[in-house]
Amino acid sequence: MTMSVEKVADWAAESVGPSEPTEELTQETVFETLSSERRRHVLHYLFQQEQPVTLKELSTQIAAWENNTKCDLVTYKERMRVYTALRQAHLPKMVDNNVVIFDEKRGVIEPTDDASALEVYLDIVPHNSISWSKYYAGLGVFSHGFVFANWIGLPPFSLIPSLGCAVIVTLLFSVSALVHAASDREMRLGREGQPPA
């Protein structure tokens, strides 16, 4: 019994399983996508859902976030302003960047396999506050200075026993790490509640 070339190709494709994402996101694409608050809102909502969402549902939720209100209190004008911007600008850009799949006929949107990589970049997107890397560098310099001042007997640091210095430095880093972990959770796209600022 012989198989046609087409059947062999189909069988081979099924045996391999689902394909990997075809296009890796470049750093430029990631920053371009995450630079817009509305696009971050789109991803946040899509990551919260376990199925594709309609453009109407998505625009209603984003309008609610932007106007600090509940979805059922969003006005037609507020929703249409978001709807139009998503349809004409943001979703086409996200499709081009291989971040979402947008079925225009059905008005349905879902994230691509590559979209989950965007979460990794949220921590390095510039915010209004100091970055964690600079914070830890500063904490390290402070800790070294604190320990050195204690070691050479500089008052008032000399009044603290060496074990006390070790405890203080350890506590500073431990508390900082806990605050950093909580901050990372708050910045995660797709967590419950409103999107990260």
TrEMBL record:
Residues 31-110 form the DUF7344 domain. InterPro entries: DUF7344. It comes from the Archaea. Keywords: Membrane, Transmembrane, Transmembrane helix. Residues 1-24 are annotated as: Disordered. The chain crosses the membrane at residues 135-153, 159-181. This is DUF7344 domain-containing protein.
